[in-house]
Amino acid sequence: MPSDQVLVIGGGPAGLEAARGVAELGTRAVLVEERDHLGGTPVFERYAALTHGFQDAEEVMNRMIQAVVSHPNVEVRLRSRVVSCEGSVGCFRVGIASTEDGAEPTALEAGAIIVATGFQHFDPGRETQIYGYYEYPDVITLADAEAMLKAKRFVRPSTGLPPERVCFIQCVGSRDRQIGNEFCSKVCCGIASKQAIEIRQQVPGCKVYIFYIDMRMYGYWENEIYWPAQEQYKVNYIKGIATEVLRKGDRLLVRGEDTTLGRPLEIPMDVVILSVGMEPSKGTRRIAQVLGLKQNKYGFIEVPHEGVDPVATSAPGIFVAGAAAGPKDLDDTLSMAGAAAARAVAAIRRVVASAAP
Amino acid sequence: MPSDQVLVIGGGPAGLEAARGVAELGTRAVLVEERDHLGGTPVFERYAALTHGFQDAEEVMNRMIQAVVSHPNVEVRLRSRVVSCEGSVGCFRVGIASTEDGAEPTALEAGAIIVATGFQHFDPGRETQIYGYYEYPDVITLADAEAMLKAKRFVRPSTGLPPERVCFIQCVGSRDRQIGNEFCSKVCCGIASKQAIEIRQQVPGCKVYIFYIDMRMYGYWENEIYWPAQEQYKVNYIKGIATEVLRKGDRLLVRGEDTTLGRPLEIPMDVVILSVGMEPSKGTRRIAQVLGLKQNKYGFIEVPHEGVDPVATSAPGIFVAGAAAGPKDLDDTLSMAGAAAARAVAAIRRVVASAAP
């Protein structure tokens, strides 16, 4: 007996938009989220403004959450985790366990499944000790900076005072064969540039530098962020490689090479922000196992027909949206979520039609 | 009386995928295309392999076309053009004219509309005379190269013989304030690198150079194209600016600056390929007027809530998919098309539900 509801796994932007899309098509969606709140990484990591439109992340996410929780076709299950799955398109039987107690998992039937379990930030202390992330309090990540910018209190963590010089180091955990992440994380150039603008807005006297390999400001990110960052906000972009972060007096010293000028760099900084890339979240790695989905060599959900069918996984009836499939920006994520909603509902329609007497 | 069908304007990848998405949701789609064939730019410009998966473009497009023309819920109207539109979401009344005769337009009702009218390549002779596109037969564009690669006959146009040295010049018509296109066209780095690999496969003795500002190989383009291009296919990437193309004997001479080495460039070439960017197609500019859609400063369809709602236009019930909204890659285009299909069908559902007695 086919099920006419869609299971959406993950309550971040991809999962919220997918659940809303399914519900707006008149189909019931059950959204399962491990945390005790919806909103995914933008809420959990306390994002400030979104890239590229500079909208307030909390406002946007609250609107998305409200649209989902108020929709009569959506049921949200927080503190819940998918722990088993059998069956196939039209008739998946899924076990859902509480993250809080050891009670027996409850059973759920779904005609199709959308995986929206997202990414996690690369841990810059894990294999990249050269930047001293665990050693110096003033070496932080994009996510740490985001939270300070949201609080409108961008300071040197070691002193609590506004910094005079801040730099970003790009491609930490990306484009790096040594740590096994050859891919580009796609969004870090845009996010660093957006944060550079916000720092200049909040701490106008602060000088801001970005050390980069290539500035990947594709599409409208170029005219909407990169040009204003340079011209209006005087952010200093330096094509170069930072090889080392040291302590010098009460400041940090960034060593490396300016590859355009072809000379060594040695610049004192108050705050160093590591532009950490994307890796599959724990939830993404786990759900791939539970659902029996192929993963690519980086652990993201494999999309077998990438470039031609961007939301199909290796399993019929199971679709993927957002950064669970690899590095994605918010536009990618929301478009994929809408497409996955359409595909999931269409898959159920097909099974129901073929099962009709 | 609301209409329960969706009008899709444009028969390229975005329009085909949108029409299929609508049809698979059980809703009727009418796809209107000006040309006498479906397939859009990949077919019209005779693309070889697609970026980034290297699938054969003709095969992929034929599959997409077949899925649409064989679907009982889709009606395709070739050689047809939308010339008028009134009404609003749920009840658009559209006039469709033949491109072949002066017969009176026929009327069509649609509950929602998806605009998928795409882009056109920047004309490199228009304002960028420094590259001699109209002067030298061996100066060609990405699209010209694509057609030669598809025919498996990559030659110097002036001699018909295989070239020994080929270069790409990136950002022709993009990232350029002088011509008014400050945006990045997003796909040219990937397409040039893909073509560089194909040239090295088809003409193994040929040296290939790419002159670039930033290599924008975001996400998996980095590991799937950029690394193999450098390591396996020995493509020479030169961060530099080409300022001039001249004739020297029976060859071309590219002048500029290698910005990494900080020294002038002067390299003889057999073929120079201009990586021309995206501009709105004539159809995109025209349909914006006909439908009363806001356009951005570049003439693309404006997406008022970009980054938060990537397929909504300024008009309720009218959605956009693909490069009609600005530079997009094929993943973007197909995801947007799926999302637009879901939104269009949901918009009709809402109107029908509220009109029910």
Protein described:
- The structure is a homodimer of 357-residue chains.
- By secondary structure, the first copy, chain A, is an alpha/beta fold.
- The first copy, chain A, has eight helices and 17 strands.
- A seven-stranded mixed sheet of chain A has the order 9-15-10-11-12-13-14.
- In chain A, a hairpin with a 4-residue loop joins strand 13 (251-258) and strand 14.
- In chain A, helix 4 (142-150) packs parallel to helix 5.
- The longest helix of chain A is centred in the last third of the chain and has 26 residues, at 330-355.
- Chains A and B meet through helix 6 and helix 8 of A and helix 6 and helix 8 of B.
Task: Label this structure with key terms.
357 residues, 28% strand, homodimer, 8 helices, alpha/beta, seven-stranded mixed β-sheet, elongated, five-stranded parallel β-sheet
Which parts of chain A are unreliable, with pLDDT below 50 for 5 consecutive residues or more? none
Largest interface: A-B, 59 and 59 residues
Total beta-strand segments of chain A: 17
Strand content of chain A: 25-35%
Look at the structure and give the mean pLDDT of chain A: 95
N- to C-terminal separation of chain A?
12 Å
Largest sheet of chain A: 7 strands, mixed
Global shape of chain A: elongated
Oligomerization status of the protein chains: homodimer
Number of helices of chain A: 8
Q: Bin the helical content of chain A.
A: 25-40%
Order of helices and strands of chain A: EHEHHEEEEEEEHEHEHEEEEEHEH
How large is the radius of gyration of chain A? 22 Å
Class from helix and strand fractions of chain A:
alpha/beta
> How are the strands of the largest sheet of chain A arranged?
9-15-10-11-12-13-14
